[in-house]
């Protein structure tokens, strides 16, 4: 099944290649032209940058939590197998408990970067509103 999915995706990508080559010239932004001065485009670029910075900062925090939760799940599954209990149920219960146990620490670590992202998004919107008022 997995090979069928991969083969289908590959064939679609190969069929899309010639179609893509027949499209018109690249957009000015892709050709290295100067950045847009349109306030909405500028705001969207600033917001995209803020979201990207947030995701880069959040990635290690999320990975740390996922590793902690997965370790608890693995331990519970191993204990369930050793005692003859259902490992699926034990893993599900352990995941829920570990997720809830790590929530306060996770939320505390995420709070500063969430606030920074929200402030950057609001600042971009305020700059856009100010630029639109000047028009």
Structural commentary:
The protein has 135 residues and is an all-alpha fold. The protein is 84% helix and 0% strand. Helix 2 (39-83) runs antiparallel to helix 3 (87-134). The mean pLDDT is 85. The protein contains three helices and no strands. The termini are far apart.
Mean pLDDT: 85
Span from first to last CA? 57 Å
Pattern of helices and strands: HHH
Secondary-structure-based class equals mainly alpha
Low-confidence stretches: none
What is the count of β-strands?
0
Task: Please tally the helical runs, counting DSSP H or I stretches of 4 or more residues.
Answer: 3
Radius of gyration: 24 Å
- Characterize the main sheet: none
The portion of residues assigned to helices is over 70%
Strand content: under 5%
What global shape is seen?
flat
Descriptors:
3 helices; 135 residues
Kindly summarize this structure in a few lines.
By secondary structure, the chain is mostly helical. The protein is 84% helix and 0% strand. It is built from three helices and no strands.
């Amino acid at each position: 099944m997995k090979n069928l999915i991969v083969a289908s995706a590959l064939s679609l990508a190969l069929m899309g290649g010639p179609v893509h080559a027949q499209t018109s010239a690249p957009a000015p932004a892709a050709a290295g032209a100067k950045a847009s001065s349109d306030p909405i485009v500028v705001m969207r670029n600033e917001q995209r940058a803020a979201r990207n910075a947030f995701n880069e900062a959040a990635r290690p925090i999320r990975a740390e939590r996922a590793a902690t939760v997965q370790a608890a799940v693995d331990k519970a599954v191993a204990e369930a197998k050793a005692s003859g209990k259902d490992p699926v149920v034990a893993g599900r219960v352990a995941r829920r408990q570990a997720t809830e146990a790590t929530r306060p620490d996770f939320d505390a670590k995420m709070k500063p970067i969430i606030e920074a992202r929200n402030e950057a998004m609001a600042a971009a919107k305020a700059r856009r509103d100010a630029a639109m008022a000047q028009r």
